[in-house]
Amino acid sequence: MPAGYVGAGFPEATVYRARELHADVIAIDGGSTDSGPHYLGTATAKSARNAVARDLRHILLAARDADIPVIVGSCGTSGTDAGVDWIYEIALEIAETEELDLSIARIYSEQTASELKRYLAENRIHPLEPAADLRPETLDRCSHIVGVLGHEPILDALAQGANLVLTGRATDTALIAAVPLGRGMPDGPVWHGAKTSECGGLCTTKPQSGGVLVTFDRTGFTVEPLGDDAACTPTSVAAHMMYENADPFRMREPAGTLDTSGARYLQADDRRVRVEGSRFESADQYTIKLEGAAPAGYQTMILVGLRSPTVLARLDEWCDGVLTYLHHNIAESFGLSPADYDLQLRRYGQDGVLGKYEPDKSTMPREVGIVFIATAEDQATATQLAKFANPILLHAPLPGETALPSYAFFGSPAETERGQLHEFVLSHTVNVDSPHELFRTLVSVAHA
Questions:
Q1: Per-residue pLDDT tens digits of the chain, which is 448 residues long
Q2: What's the domain count of the chain?
Q3: What is the chain's alpha carbon radius of gyration, rounded to the nearest angstrom?
Q4: Is 74 in a helix, a strand, or coil?
Q5: Cα 366–369–370 angle (5° rounding)?
Q6: Backbone phi, then psi, for 237, in 5-degree steps?
Q7: Shared-domain flag, residues 172 and 310
Q8: In terms of CB atoms within 10 Å, which end of the chain has fewer, N or C?
Q9: 242 and 364 assigned to the same domain
Q10: Cβ 149 vs Cβ 82: under 8 Å
């Protein structure tokens, strides 16, 4: 794994080092839900196209030189069909420019509401905590729905002769696990090694030094960094089971559950770590996770800076006063009820990140950036609410005071339209009879 995701960047030399160490496949993730529902809702990528093309070019040149396949998962951030096609177009451009022969498999993972309703009617869709039972109308609300594929469709694509596999939404680990599982390596070490290396150098002492190479055998796996100035330690490797995982010892995949509670981490040399004792529990029922995003209104925001020590000492009162004023006057001026809109004040410099969970309530900041956010059913209303808030945000006194202070807007115009919002509305699994049944694979050839 050269990096956490394609487009993140990595030292070019590290992928050639993987070739020198006789890697059998280069796998890299292309997306995540980390950046929120917008990218799934709009079927767009969070990464810059130039950055993706740069990384993919380095990977493809190294892989074709070594005659090994490349696997890119969750293409276009959220793994929509448009995301797969986006990476496919970039790959075609690279193939033409660099005169590469590529056999490209595109594995599509988007789902339709109408087809999923059939599974729902058969009681084959179940919620993941804390989601509620799925209703048909929730499926209809979704802009895009993807199924999270396992390693089996990837293996099938490789068997069809693909040397570049581009997948829709996939588990990060499936990309790395596919080839070793296809060669008969034991499930426990493979899934654990795949989890360890899913973010490239994050399991090393220098996460930005480049990727890692994982070597599997019948009793375990060994992981080593590809950057010259990095090392793996038992702590850095074991700690990665806690990354984006609720349980530090167990992780669910479509086919079952990885159990690392009995794993042993040994320092093999000054750079490599050896891991043994991981197990994999096959599930009685193969399941595919569903992810879906639906429209959730429109937003407009204003950023205003506060440095008044008097106001900052009583910031809770000031914010409460602003919101009370706005809610009262919005009802009178717009005829809207609280159910028609939402207003937020986020205080960056005080508790903008943690909110009510901020542990230090006593230290007064020197300055705070107040982010005012208006959300409504349409953009025009959200923007009008922000414009309505403009004067009070610029001059609001503390409650009980009459003198009008002045604060600093970030720029002019003060309001910035954020456009349509989306929210995640699906976190469910669907019982399937085959690992392949929700996915579609298309193989094509790009000649130099």
A1: 678 888 888 888 888 888 888 899 999 999 888 889 999 999 999 999 999 999 999 999 999 999 999 999 999 999 999 999 999 999 999 999 999 999 999 999 999 999 999 999 999 999 999 999 999 999 999 999 999 999 999 999 999 999 999 999 999 999 999 999 999 999 999 999 999 999 888 999 998 888 999 999 999 999 999 998 899 999 999 999 998 888 999 999 999 999 999 999 999 999 999 999 999 999 999 999 999 999 999 999 999 999 999 999 999 999 999 999 999 999 999 999 999 999 999 999 999 999 989 998 888 999 999 999 999 999 999 999 999 999 999 999 998 888 888 899 999 999 999 999 999 999 999 999 999 999 999 999 886 6
A2: 2
A3: 25
A4: strand
A5: 125
A6: -75, -50
A7: no
A8: C
A9: no
A10: no
Please tell me whether residues 231 and 302 are part of one structural domain.
no
* Together in a domain, 171 and 236: yes
Distance CA 196, CA 243 (A): 9
Residues 359 and 436 in one domain: no
Task: Label the pairing between strands 287-306 and 368-376.
Answer: antiparallel
Instruction: Tell me the β-bridge partners of 28.
Output: 72
Angle (CA) 277 280 285, round 5°: 170
Residue 144 belongs to a domain = no
The enclosing domain of 410 has a CATH number of 3.30.70
412 and 328 in a common domain: yes
* Residue 127, domain member (yes or no): no
| Sequence letter at residue 95 | A
Do 9 and 47 contact (CB within 8 A), yes or no? no
8 A C-beta contact, residue 64 and residue 41: no
Residues in Cβ contact with 144 at an 8 Å cutoff, skipping those fewer than 6 apart = 40, 41, 43, 78, 80, 110, 292, 293
